[in-house]
UniProtKB/TrEMBL annotation:
<feature type="region of interest" description="Disordered">
    <location>
        <begin position="1"/>
        <end position="21"/>
    </location>
</feature>
<protein>
    <recommendedName>
        <fullName>Lipoprotein</fullName>
    </recommendedName>
</protein>
<feature type="transmembrane region" description="Helical">
    <location>
        <begin position="60"/>
        <end position="80"/>
    </location>
</feature>
<keyword id="KW-0812">Transmembrane</keyword>
<keyword id="KW-0472">Membrane</keyword>
<keyword id="KW-1133">Transmembrane helix</keyword>
């Protein structure tokens, strides 16, 4: 057997590429940039929500009170109509 030349691949075929492909192509770089942007957006939304937690709780309480008042008024109307 003869020793393989340095320019040949393991299979011995001279047409096969001998260099390893680049680890990260342009598509992978674009995808990682998009992923970083999505992570940044998620962190921004989480920060925005945490800053407005008290306002959201106040709005929820106000909505519950309006709902209870509407239900009470509706029950009074139904009661008045049946009498």
């Amino acid at each position: 057997m003869t020793a393989m030349k340095a320019g040949r691949a393991r299979s011995g075929c001279s047409m096969e590429k001998t260099t390893a492909p680049a680890r990260r192509g342009t598509i992978a770089r674009r995808l990682s940039a998009v992923g970083a942007g999505c992570g940044r957006t998620a962190r921004d939304y989480a920060r925005w929500i945490s800053r407005r937690r008290r306002v959201a709780a106040d709005q929820f309480l106000r909505g519950a009170c309006y709902g209870a008042g509407t239900a009470a008024a509706g029950l009074l109307v139904v009661w008045a109509q049946t009498r």
